[in-house]
Design brief:
GO terms for molecular function: acyltransferase activity; nucleotidyltransferase activity. Pfam families: GMPPB_C. This is Transferase hexapeptide (Six repeat-containing protein). By secondary structure, this protein is mainly beta. It has a single domain (3-218), classed as Hexapeptide repeat proteins (UDP N-Acetylglucosamine Acyltransferase, domain 1, 3 Solenoid). It is 8% helix and 39% strand. The mean pLDDT is 96.
Length: 223
């Protein structure tokens, strides 16, 4: 899997996010991370008050969304139509939660874009990450977004490193990715469309589309 396989076009269906314009002109998804906050601020002010309400300091929530009274949402954030924010979810700002998404019990989000129909339903941490259409993170799976030595994150594909220039980079999940329970996606992980990650995995680098990640030495093509 080379760097050409981890482009925005390779990973995501841009028709499945309210943030499509943010990705235009950007070859790689990590280029979008520093732009999320300003994009939300600009887009939020343009949202229809027939469909959205301003529920706090730069927090726009669709009237059709369901938000538990115990959830905490800090701005800037946009919660799109028919999304479900469950008990004790913690959205720390710079977050776009797409249509029909589920943000579940004790899940924490920070500087993220969730495409439509994403599910992070149980005890997940998702930071500085982008999750594609209908991707799903199993219970307890998380994105690790800072290296232990605090150096800048690079994207490792096919033995080559591409520098992001960023200290905080989580994971980029293509459309329809399934991540097994209690897995850790290390900083700069990219998982191609339609791939599955076994439970209890520690994943780093780039995983090709249409693959099954069993362990670092065993990544097989789906049949």
């Amino acid at each position: 899997m080379g760097i050409s396989d981890v482009t925005v076009d390779s990973l995501f269906d841009l028709e499945q996010t309210i943030a499509a314009d943010l990705f235009k002109g950007q070859a790689y998804p990590w280029k979008v991370l520093p732009l999320i906050k300003d994009y939300i601020m600009a887009l939020g002010s343009q949202l229809s008050f027939d469909e959205y309400e301003l529920a706090g300091d730069n927090v726009w929530i669709a009237k059709s969304a369901t938000v538990a009274p115990t959830a905490t949402i800090q701005g800037p954030a946009i919660i799109c139509k028919d999304a479900e924010i469950r008990h004790c979810a913690f959205i720390r700002g710079n977050a776009i939660v797409g249509e029909h998404c589920v943000v579940g019990n004790s899940t924490e989000l920070k500087n993220v874009i969730l495409f439509n129909y994403v599910q992070v339903p149980h005890y997940n941490y998702v930071g500085d990450s982008i999750l594609g259409y209908r991707s799903h993170m199993g219970a307890g799976s998380i994105t690790s977004n800072v290296k232990s030595d605090k150096t800048l994150v690079s994207i490792k594909c096919d033995g080559k490193n591409t520098q992001t220039g960023l200290k905080k980079v989580g994971a980029f999940l293509g459309d329809y990715v399934e991540v097994g329970c209690n897995s850790v996606l290390n900083p700069g992980t990219v998982i191609g469309r339609n791939s599955n990650v076994y439970p209890l995995s520690s994943v780093r680098g780039c995983i090709p589309a249409n693959s099954i990640y069993k362990k670092a030495s065993e990544v097989v093509n789906k049949k």
